[in-house]
C-alpha cells in the first residue's frame, strides 16, 4: 500500500513539473512579454539600435497588442519589407488614451551580418515617405489591429526628403527659388503647410531632414515662390514681406529661420542679409 502511494506521489510530481515546464515555455513563446501590464519587452535586443525606425498609433489597447507583437511585425514587413531585412518592434505603450497604443519599430538587416542594398533602401525610403504623406495606408490585420494613425519616420540613414502634393509643377510658372533652414520638424511644417503656402505664395516645396526624421528639427525647405515679374526676380518690398512672414510666429509657431538662400538657374546668392536687415 505504501509502495502504491509512493508511486502515485512520484507521478504527481512528474505531472506537476511537466505542467510547469509547458507553462513557462508558453510564456516565453508569446514573447515579447509585458511587465505589470504596461511595459513592453522586445524580443530582439538589437531593435533599439536599428538605423531605420518609424512609428504610428493604433486605436487598440496595449494589453491586446502586446500579445500579438509577432503578428504585428509580420504584417508590417508584408507591407514595406525589402530583401535582407526584418521588422522588429522597439516599443509599445499606451497613449494618453488607454484605448490607443503608440508603436515604434525598426528595420534591421537579416541576417545581422548582411546589409540592405541601396536599391532596397531607396524603395523602403519611398514607402515610408508615402505613408507619412498618407498616399498609401499601412494595412494590418483589421480584426486585431484596426487602422494606423500618425505614421512618422524617426530615423533613416542618408536623410529623408518629403515633397507634399503640389498644386502646380515647379516649372509651370515664373518663380524665385529659396532655401529655408528652420528649427522645426517636417511633421510640424506639414500641419501648417496650407497657411505657409497662402502667406508666401508658394508654388512648390520640398522638406529635408538630414537625420531622416519627420519629427525632429532642423528642416531645410526648398520653396518655389511666385515672382513679381517675368524675369523671376522679387522686388525689395516683396523680399521684406517674405522675411517678415517667415519669421512670423503666427504663421508657423516657433519658426526660427537660420538662413535664406535665393537661387537663380545659373548662380546662387546668399540672402541671409534679408533677415538681419529687415527684422
From TrEMBL:
InterPro entries given in the database record: DUF7036
Keywords assigned: Membrane, Transmembrane, Transmembrane helix
The keyword Membrane appears for this protein: yes
Domain DUF7036: 55-146, 179-249
Domain of life according to the entry: Eukaryota
Transmembrane segments: 12-31
Pfam families with a match to the protein in the record: DUF7036
Keyword Membrane carried by entry: yes
Name used for this protein in its record: DUF7036 domain-containing protein
UniProt source species: Dendrobium nobile (Orchid)
